Amino acid sequence: MIVTTEPPLVIEHPSRKVAYRRSTTLHGRSNVHFRDRMVSARTFSGAIFCIRIFILILAIVAMILILTAPGACFSRYLNGQAISREICPGQNSIFPMNADRWSNALHFQGRGQNVYGQVALICITLVFALITVAASCIQLASGQYLTYAQLFASGLALIAFIVCGGVETWYATGFDHMEFFIQAVGNGVFSGCAGLPGCQIEFVVKGWAVAAAFYFLGALLFLVDMVLVFFSREK
Asked: How many distinct structural domains can be found in the chain?
């Protein structure tokens, strides 16, 4: 005797199918949204890292410009009007401003110790640039964003670069010494101001001026860095 059995008839309610489809769709959408957030966060992190590397490069180039001091020039002004072209003696000829002459150049006349203050500017900017780059490396390696710590570090670096840029500008324009020294050489004969009341000398080390501009640019980039760090917190 052969007994045949038929599979039980299972009737699935339509609402269950709809619920299953909805849950599957929502799960897929959440995965896509999560992946989009991860990609966006990585994009922000990569952009922040590139900005900080560029700032570090600026700090290194500024250090080289400070130590080599190219482009020491001066001009004559009479009552605020230029009366001569810019005079730029050859590098290391009349007014060498490079680092190896800070301690023995006659034109510093005991003010060389003031120029050594630029070593502090170099150290401060390099340290802050390296700290922020290290923070980015930790973030990329561990996935921990440390938003507030990075904002704090970038904020301090921004202030430091602004201050260093201002001080370097003061150095680049003669640090309240070179103009008076040049004008006093030969009682004004060397500068061409002899017998010209109201004649003044304006001095600039172009390499140091560019270094100051790099510090200000670094400060601006740190501001952009802080904005990106803040928005990456939402990603």
From this structure: 1
Query: Residue ranges of the alpha helices (H) in the chain?
Result: 14-68, 112-115, 117-142, 147-172, 178-184, 206-232
**Tokens (6 digits) for 9:** 């008839």
Residues 64 and 214 sit within 8 Å (Cβ to Cβ): no
Q: Which CATH number belongs to the domain containing residue 209 in this structure? A: 1.20.140
Interatomic CA distance for residues 170 and 174, integer angstroms: 7
In a domain, 43, yes or no: no
**Alpha carbons 114 and 165: distance in angstroms, whole number:** 16
Structural domain contains residue 184: yes
Residue 34, pLDDT score: 41
Which parts of the chain have pLDDT scores under 50?
1, 9-11, 15, 17-20, 23-28, 30-39
pTM score above 0.85: no
